[in-house]
Amino acid sequence: MQTQALNQTNQAIQIKESIRWCLYARKSTEADELQALSIDSQIKEALELAQAEKLNIVEIKKESHSAKDSGQRPVFNQLLADIRTGVFNGILCWAPDRLARNAGDLGSVVDLMDQGRLIEIRTHGQKFTNNPNEKFLLMILGSQAKLENDHRGENVKRGLRAKCEKGWRPGPPPLGYLHDKYSDKGDKKVFIDPKRSVYIKKIFEKVAHEQYSGRQIYRWLNNETDFKTKNNKKITLSMIYRILEDHYYTGEFEYPVGSDKWYQGNHDPIITKELFQKAREQLERDNIERSECKEFAFTKLIKCGHCGSGVTAEEKFKKLSNGSVNRYVYYGCTRSRDLNCKGGYLREEELIKQLCNIIDQIDLDELGIKNQFEQEIARYHRFSNSVLGIKLEPKQKETDMKNYAKYILKEGTTLEQRNLLSNLKSRLVMRNKEVKMEKNSNT
User: Fold this and answer.
1) Can you name the CATH fold of 2-152?
2) What's the predicted TM-score (pTM) here?
3) What residue ranges in 40-124 does DSSP mark as E strands?
């Protein structure tokens, strides 16, 4: 009996000495693990245990990642891969929940034990080997950690619902409101910001009553007022649109967003529901107008000489005293690269006049579609000779070609006009209401 016991002890010592340990330390960055021991503290505790037990630590792996979902931790996944290839066959960690807080990762660890690749897991005060009872205990502890996670999530959701029912939306309040900094966390009340709320109300009023667009609001706030965000920065265009979409300013809120669960807020509203609705209707009208596909002849063919943005067009209608309506088209910078671009607007008639002057100044080859024009001129000559009985001299050909190009600019279809300018070998640039040709650097 003594010999058998001695053999078992020697065998256990040999197994212990043959284990190549990996020290794994993990702490989630999420709020649900604020009480967990820090990574450095976990390593310190584990190294003291390794020194006392004479464990051979081959490598230390550290990770800051939640273990709620399986397969999402890159360092842990690499640890499992190293165990499968025989780099390690033992894991040393502070507690079982550092390894797994979900069924998927826990199952992967137990499978490695079943395969004999993972000989032992050692934690502070516990050890787990390929023994049915020890594996069962490991699975119980891992399942308990998952249960705590699930309960914690339910408790958080329940707390958020309770806060909403009291009239307080979870999270920081939007621009125009301030948190009560002296209340306890989770019990903070919200008050109107006397400095910024005035501008928030004016934003809605300018959109609803003066038909301001989001970009006009942006320029007004940043160029004509001293308005700043809570971080003392200028407001962005996206922030303006978020403000105009937030029901919170009317005294009610939806939580979570998109859930269609609405609560009556306990905070004071900055605007009325009627003003909010009128502003929303104006924005929707703007969106409809922008979404209508209106094809203008010279858009996308000219760039702004100030900021390099494209040039777009917009229609304006003026009702005359006799009851008729005049239509005007203006071309100007899209301001896609610079919202504050000072590029002006040019009437379409003036633009065509300048383009005709450009046609006069360039060689015919510059048009890029000389063959097409020559075919058109040849057809015109045949028509003149056979139908009108007018014989045109060949020397008129170049003049006719340029005149034909001008005719296309003035009277041609949108497709013909775009086709003409798109074949120019040089880019058109509009600067200070003047259109010029920008020569390519490689020409």
Assistant:
1) Rossmann fold (3.40.50)
2) 0.47
3) 57-63, 90-92, 120-123
